[in-house]
Specification:
175 residues; alpha/beta; 5-stranded parallel sheet; 7 helices; Rossmann fold; 5 strands; binds shikimate-3-phosphate
């Protein structure tokens, strides 16, 4: 089986993916980490120096490279914008990835992202007073696409990590 975890920034895709991969004995790959490896630059630096369009191109290129090996038993965690690009969705569908949407409530996303905003190129320049509104608006603009392309969905509000992981495992019938 090949699994792709996606959802908004701060949804916990990478940590859940890593832990799930351990349970399933699958290989875990984080797309953003692969982009960093491939370019030798941080995501922040790529956005700042080359802009978002260049980042999206790289994201697609690296995804294509990653999945062309037809590797089985793989869990891939995608950056929050990757699934929005039709060319990325096409690749995932071509390779029969099970697409799981990690759907975290907006208040919880705001809580999590507040402390990490400076590491994220899309958030770092947002003033604190506009932060919640910005997350809400960005989430609103993405949520329909997130919903539409989910083969499965894990809805999370304030659950702790272990509970979320157990629910994700249950969804997949893994104990
Ligand atoms: C992005 C999410 C980030 C990263 C980039 C753009 C987005 O990944 O790919 O900063 O457009 O939502 P995470 O979702 O892992 O933070």
């Amino acid at each position: 089986m090949r699994i792709a975890l996606y959802g908004f920034m701060g949804a916990g895709k990478s940590s859940l993916g890593q832990a799930l991969a351990r349970r399933l004995n699958y290989r875990f790959v984080d797309l953003d980490a692969e982009i960093v490896k491939y370019t030798g630059k941080s995501i922040y630096k790529i956005f700042n120096e080359e802009g978002e369009i260049a980042f999206r191109k790289l994201e697609h290129q690296v995804l294509k490279e990653l999945i062309k090996r037809d590797e089985e038993n793989l869990i891939l965690s995608l950056g929050g914008g990757a699934i929005l690009q039709p060319n990325n969705r096409k690749l995932l569908e071509l390779k029969d990835f099970l697409k799981i949407y990690i759907d975290v409530s907006v208040p919880e996303l705001i809580r999590r992202l507040k402390d990490e905003k400076n590491e994220r190129p899309l958030l770092a320049h947002i003033d604190n007073e506009f932060f919640s509104g910005f997350i809400e608006a960005l989430h609103n603009s993405r949520k329909d696409v997130y919903e539409q392309h989910a083969d499965m969905k894990l809805r999370i509000d304030k659950e702790d990590f272990e509970t979320a992981l157990n629910r994700l495992s249950l969804l997949l019938n893994v104990n």
